[in-house]
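Researcher: We're teaching a course module on how sequence relates to structure. For the next exercise, students receive a sequence and then see the predicted structure as tokens, so they can try to spot secondary structure elements on their own. Here is the exercise chain.
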Amino acid sequence: MEENSLKKVIYALAAVAVVLAGVLAYIWIQKSTLVNELNVEKEELTQQMVALQADYESLSSDYDTINAQLDSSKEEVAQLIERIKKTEATNRYKMRQYEKELGTLRSIMRNYIVQIDSLNTLNKKLTAEAAEARQAAEESRRRNENLSQQVDKLSDQVASGSIIKATGLRVDAYNASGSVTDRSSRVVKLLTSLSLVANDLAPHGPVRVYIVVKDPSGATLINSSSRSLTLNGETIQTSASREVDYEGSEVDLSIYLNEIPEYVKGIYKVDAYTAQSFLGSTELLLR
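Model: And here is the predicted structure for the students to work with:
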């Protein structure tokens, strides 16, 4: 009877051992499966981090501040990858912490993309505006230059238009009896006649008209009343002159040249001037 009881105990223990072995086998299988799953998750997390690292490497900008921030974030990603590699897959707390850091770094990268796009858009806008401003400035410069040229041209025209001009310039030789002659031996004086043209733009008031008479040798005929004239920086010795009152209307005048000891045969040239301009030339032939 005792033997039967012992057998029953042995059988019972054997059954328990079998059950325990089965439970242990089940637990081991479950643990192995869980470890494999955690390793797969770790590998996936690592791959995601590597992909994020590549995304960060592809980012670049023309702005030093953002580039400095990018470098810092790239370093964080590299350090996180190293930490993941060194952490056991079964450390689920650490793995979840790394997943959160991955999400944070992704959000930061999206913010960088938005900032870079916004700054690039702004930069393009500013570049376009700067180009428009330069073009507008160049057009304004050209307009001002054209306007300045027009003003200079108009000023030249006004200055030119304000110059007194003459017409009807002629010279005659007279003998002692007051008759016109062309005999050099009989000439005692020369009379130069001209008309100052009407010009409302010209300055009104006293105007002195000068004549320069040159004999056939080119020498200027002068007497005791001859004056010098400075025109355009050049001093001219004149033969005779006369002052008239000019009020913008036409003025006829004559200028005598007296006190010349003798006249020779040949062509005499007469030039007429005011203090501002050359009025014209004429010639006289004496025989």
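Model: If you want an answer key for the exercise: The helical segments are 2-58, 64-86, 92-161. The longest strand covers residues 205-214.
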